[in-house]
């Protein structure tokens, strides 16, 4: 399922960052893979890393008391997985699970935050990118929760 806030080009790393900043970020990347069904993180736990998907699909979900987690959005190639690492207190706001085998680039959050502090231009570019992702995920969450729990669904609201 692709969430209501389906990926826009502004949220992919290739469109969000200049070549210079993207190359700087990618120097910190390490390749990882996850089997289908692997939980990447849980709501409320420490957010100390993030990923950019190379292949596969990751579902973002929201804890709903007394129910199964509500899948908010599915993410694919080039998309950022995790934004909570960028904002204190660095705790995950959602959960994430690999829906298929996933290959990704993983980043240590502290290392990226240090780079952001050392280079204000890089830091601003990362902040704008992460901010765009947060706004898009908030929109997708709203639409998905309306679809799941409102009497008449989202009604196609934008």
UniProtKB/TrEMBL annotation:
Domain Cyclic nucleotide-binding: 13-82
Record's protein name: Regulatory protein
Pfam family, one: cNMP_binding
InterPro entries cross-referenced by the UniProt entry: cNMP-bd_dom (IPR000595), cNMP-bd_dom_sf (IPR018490), RmlC-like_jellyroll (IPR014710)
Originating species: Streptomyces roseochromogenus subsp. oscitans DS 12.976
């Amino acid at each position: 399922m692709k969430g209501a806030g389906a990926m826009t080009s502004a949220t992919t790393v290739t469109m969000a960052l200049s070549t210079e900043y993207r190359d700087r970020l990618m120097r910190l990347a390490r390749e990882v893979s996850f089997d289908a069904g692997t939980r990447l993180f849980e709501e409320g736990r420490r957010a100390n890393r993030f990923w950019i998907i190379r292949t596969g699909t990751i579902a973002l979900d929201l804890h709903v008391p007394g129910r199964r987690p509500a899948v908010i959005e599915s993410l694919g190639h080039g998309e950022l997985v995790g934004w909570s690492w960028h904002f204190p207190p660095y705790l995950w706001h959602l959960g994430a699970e690999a829906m298929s085998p996933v290959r990704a680039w993983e980043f240590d959050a502290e290392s990226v935050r240090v780079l952001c502090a050392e280079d204000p231009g890089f830091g601003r570019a990362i902040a704008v990118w992460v901010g765009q992702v947060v706004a898009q995920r908030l929109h997708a969450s709203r639409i998905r929760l309306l679809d799941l729990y409102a009497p008449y669904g989202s009604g196609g609201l934008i």
